[in-house]
């Protein structure tokens, strides 16, 4: 005989969550306070607790929390059929996902949910105010995010540095919060890197020297001091403590921290809901000067930056190859290495794939003679230089790959569509807000509210996506035009080039991609070489 629903044995999960922002509110939302409340409630209600699930330091707008996902897995496996939290906000602060769990998933899986402090229980029926509570909890997260950003901005403006640990060469001030002071024990590492760089060493060479001399890495130094990265270094072999990477060295060489400045907002979260970090364009970075005592003089730093930009590998005879760093393999992407054939009566230079040259046979030769490459690249630059001088308008149209008339018509149409979509979005937002008011006042039924709510939310999402696509398309077209004009301006500086130099190549060209040569039946040799120019890429 089937047991009535109210005799169900509830295998209960006690879920606790605390974000970093919640810590400002003291013990009222601490993990220990939540645990005390939930354990007491479970005992009084006779719930069978099968486990505690704790996410400490996780935002409620993120549902990819480790213990939350573990709890969901246990629910899917049938180990849990009741979830208890202190309140709705502990479960989550994103109203769409909250509606999904409370209105769809939990009823489908026959899982009971209880928010103790708010007296919400799916077995008894959730109150009509739950959607509003979820909306408020989401608004609270958004408002908190805005306030935190404003607080950080104010701190940055006063020269404060926010970070889990100090960069190598510095340590946190023992008395002044968010202030750096020079670390006399490690400043020598920074000075050594810049000294090697100023004497012509590149990042790869410096990295090899640091490893050979067993110079400790920033991560290992932090581990020694306070256990940071303990999971990486604990029990690891000695080599791990000085396992420098080229990326680490490059980062230090380009970091304005060492001349006393601080750069903020290099990265940001996608939104208050999506915490994934994305790189911001350099134009949006915020630079605050004189935030700490410098380790490196600005003159040395600027000279190193110039050498990074212009550095070219030296050949054994002391000459510099003008194509160095520009010529790439079309198949594996590695740089092509320069070599010389001195066995002929007339020695000549050539390039070949450096990955193939390692002897692993992971790629093919991609062989091309230096004089052939030189002549081809010079001829292309001469062609574009002539076109800029005699028919600049034609070249600009070619770069944009459309007529001016066609571009104008396309931009006009996109702008009109964007304006229309934005107007409709504002209308839908207003209708949605009014519908909530009508529902709360009892002027429309629950059925009509649910039906219209789903319709408006769907239209809002479609409009948001359309607006984003149109804005992106308009911005891309505008940027393409700006980039094309930049490249033409550069070409105007190189009137009728008669020879190639490293400066000329690096000013105009981003990379030169060499394909493997193909032999014809008649013994002829054909080879494709693609030139990707700065700002505009490849031109057909």
UniProtKB/TrEMBL annotation:
<dbReference type="InterPro" id="IPR036162">
    <property type="entry name" value="Resolvase-like_N_sf"/>
</dbReference>
<dbReference type="Pfam" id="PF13408">
    <property type="entry name" value="Zn_ribbon_recom"/>
</dbReference>
<dbReference type="InterPro" id="IPR050639">
    <property type="entry name" value="SSR_resolvase"/>
</dbReference>
<dbReference type="Pfam" id="PF07508">
    <property type="entry name" value="Recombinase"/>
</dbReference>
<protein>
    <recommendedName>
        <fullName>Recombinase domain-containing protein</fullName>
    </recommendedName>
</protein>
<dbReference type="InterPro" id="IPR011109">
    <property type="entry name" value="DNA_bind_recombinase_dom"/>
</dbReference>
<feature type="coiled-coil region">
    <location>
        <begin position="411"/>
        <end position="480"/>
    </location>
</feature>
<dbReference type="Pfam" id="PF14287">
    <property type="entry name" value="DUF4368"/>
</dbReference>
<dbReference type="InterPro" id="IPR025827">
    <property type="entry name" value="Zn_ribbon_recom_dom"/>
</dbReference>
<dbReference type="GO" id="GO:0000150">
    <property type="term" value="F:DNA strand exchange activity"/>
</dbReference>
<feature type="domain" description="Recombinase">
    <location>
        <begin position="167"/>
        <end position="314"/>
    </location>
</feature>
<dbReference type="InterPro" id="IPR038109">
    <property type="entry name" value="DNA_bind_recomb_sf"/>
</dbReference>
<dbReference type="GO" id="GO:0003677">
    <property type="term" value="F:DNA binding"/>
</dbReference>
<dbReference type="Pfam" id="PF00239">
    <property type="entry name" value="Resolvase"/>
</dbReference>
<dbReference type="InterPro" id="IPR025378">
    <property type="entry name" value="DUF4368"/>
</dbReference>
<dbReference type="InterPro" id="IPR006119">
    <property type="entry name" value="Resolv_N"/>
</dbReference>
<keyword id="KW-0175">Coiled coil</keyword>
């Amino acid at each position: 005989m089937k047991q009535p629903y109210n005799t169900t044995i509830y295998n209960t999960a006690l879920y606790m969550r605390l974000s970093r922002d919640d810590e400002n509110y003291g013990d009222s939302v601490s993990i220990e306070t939540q645990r005390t409340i939930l354990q007491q409630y479970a005992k009084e209600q006779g719930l069978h607790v099968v486990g505690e699930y704790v996410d400490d330091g996780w935002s409620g707008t993120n549902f990819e929390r480790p213990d939350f996902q573990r709890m969901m897995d246990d629910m899917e496996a049938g180990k849990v059929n009741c979830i208890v939290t202190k309140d709705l906000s502990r479960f989550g602060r994103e109203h769409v996902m909250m509606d999904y769990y409370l209105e769809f998933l939990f009823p489908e899986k026959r899982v009971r949910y209880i928010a103790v402090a708010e007296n919400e229980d799916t077995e008894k029926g959730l109150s009509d105010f739950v959607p509003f509570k979820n909306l408020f909890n989401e608004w609270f997260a958004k408002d908190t995010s805005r306030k935190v950003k404003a607080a950080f901005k104010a701190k940055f403006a006063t020269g404060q540095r926010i970070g889990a640990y100090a960069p190598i060469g510095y340590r946190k001030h023992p008395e002044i919060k968010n202030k750096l002071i020079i670390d006399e024990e490690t400043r020598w590492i920074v000075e050594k890197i810049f000294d090697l760089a100023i004497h012509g060493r590149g990042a790869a060479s410096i990295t090899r020297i640091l490893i050979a001399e067993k110079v400790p890495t920033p991560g290992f130094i932090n581990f020694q001091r306070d256990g940071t990265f303990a999971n990486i270094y604990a029990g690891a072999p000695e080599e791990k403590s000085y396992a420098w990477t080229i990326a680490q060295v490059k980062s230090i060489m380009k970091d304005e921290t060492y001349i006393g400045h601080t750069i903020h907002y290099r990265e940001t979260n996608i939104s208050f809901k999506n915490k994934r970090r994305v790189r911001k364009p350099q134009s949006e970075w915020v630079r605050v000067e004189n935030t700490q005592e410098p380790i490196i003089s600005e003159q040395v730093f600027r000279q190193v930056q110039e050498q990074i930009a212009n550095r070219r590998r030296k050949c054994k005879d002391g000459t510099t190859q003008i194509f160095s760093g520009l010529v790439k393999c079309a198949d594996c992407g590695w740089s092509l290495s320069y070599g010389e054939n001195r066995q002929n009566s007339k020695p000549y230079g050539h390039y070949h794939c450096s990955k193939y040259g390692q002897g692993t046979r992971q790629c093919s030769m991609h062989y091309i003679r230096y004089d052939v490459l030189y002549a081809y690249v010079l001829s292309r630059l001469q062609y574009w230089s002539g076109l800029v001088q005699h028919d600049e308008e034609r070249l600009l149209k070619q770069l944009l790959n459309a007529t001016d008339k066609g571009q104008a018509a396309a931009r006009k149409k996109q702008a009109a569509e964007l304006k229309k979509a934005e107007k409709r979005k504002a209308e839908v937002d207003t209708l949605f807000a009014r519908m909530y008011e009508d529902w709360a006042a009892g002027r429309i039924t629950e059925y009509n509210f649910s039906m219209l709510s789903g319709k408006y939310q769907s239209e809002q999402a479609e409009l948001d996506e359309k607006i984003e696509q149109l804005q992106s398309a308009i911005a891309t077209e505008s940027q393409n035009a700006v980039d094309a004009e930049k490249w033409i301006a550069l070409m105007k500086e190189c009137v009728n080039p008669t020879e190639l130099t490293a400066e000329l190549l690096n000013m105009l060209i981003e990379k030169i991609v060499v394909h493997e040569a193909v032999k014809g039946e008649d013994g002829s040799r054909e080879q494709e070489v693609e030139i990707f120019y700065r700002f505009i890429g490849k031109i057909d």
